[in-house]
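tool=predict chain=A
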Amino acid sequence: MFEFIAMYMSLVMQEAPQAVAEAPETPSWIRKQSDEGKLSLDIASRKYSAEGKPDLWLIGVSHVADESFYAQIELLLDELDVVLYESVRPDGARPPVNTSPEHAVKSTKASMEFVANLGVKVAEEFGTIPESIDDIIIDASLIDRRFGGWVDDASIDAWNRPFALQAFPEESAFGVWSYGSDGAIGGEGSAADLFVKRTVNIKDVFADGVIQIEEDENVNMQAAFAEMLELEFQLDALPYEEPNWFCSDLTIGEVNELLHKKGADTTVIDSLSGESLTAKLSADLMKLVPMLDSLAGGGVVETVKLLMIELLSMEDSMELSSDMQPELMEVIIVDRNTEVLKDIGVTIDIVEDLNTIGVLYGAGHMDDFHKRLEVMFDYKPTEEKWFTSMRVNPEQSLLDEKEFRRLKMMLRYQMHKAKQANEAKKSNQGE
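tool=predict ok
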């Protein structure tokens, strides 16, 4: 059971070794609480203030949690003018940029590919060819609450003109157009038209008189994990479609490029997209938990939650769940945080009448944010709120009090051994 839980720690909560050296005054972001015989895992949200700047909230989250946790988080977010949220998005999902004629063409083409590919997904999902970009935006939002905003961002070319969409119903196809730098039909070089065409395989969902639903092979592991534990999945629970919410993160391609540059293991990209073999096998394993729960007469789900709370509340819990390379963690935490800090600076500079900013990110990112906000913007914490992400009654688990104490001792011992192994590895690499 322990190995099963450890496998998911990096995906469920982005708790990571700290990218910046620890300081005594660094506040905690995760705590374990005991109240009326129940154990809970609490996550902090903190407000930061600086003279002449809007207040900024760092809002730590777990990617799966109780419904009440997300309800409280949403109430806090509703009060904020701008929300910058975490999500490594596909290549082309950002607005194209015009740093040079060549790059303008390249980034516009990448965004056209993204919009067209998502257009295929929504067409096959809903059984109709899109007739406009708005059709893709609306339907994509029904599949994933983030997608509509991403299409909206990406569907304006590097010369600030909206993409055009043309449907070819007789071919079960559609095309996405940009008319280049001159905005007119024809042209050469950067003024040449750009065109991406996609054919859609529209299935008859009522074939043989029975509704045919094809399951998605790329199971979203975090959503499956949430369902298994009778919890909510963050992407389903929070309103990513709100107009003042903006994705502030790197793309898959940017993460991959940084990992290659730093010599880190790039298989993390599969984990981020949920398409690795491990993710698929793990999703199948998770299906066994309800069956085990039934065979044991209940208690398996509570046991899993209990182990999660113990693991995630331990200092340096990530060292136990995965042998993370320093280069990998630098990309996952520091480089992605750097993107957010850039967006904070731009938001402060260009948004008028701005009173509040929210940064919605995994709790493992928060120590690095905390330290760099003061250095870069003179922000200091002025208020904090704690929200309970999950709660469990240990008496409902499969572990009695003696077994639970033994388990905690085992976990701490394995944590100690993992830290020793990592230190030895770093020492050998330095020789």
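Residues 1-24, 210-219, 273-282, 318-323 have pLDDT under 50 and may be disordered. The first strand starts at residue 30 and ends at 35.
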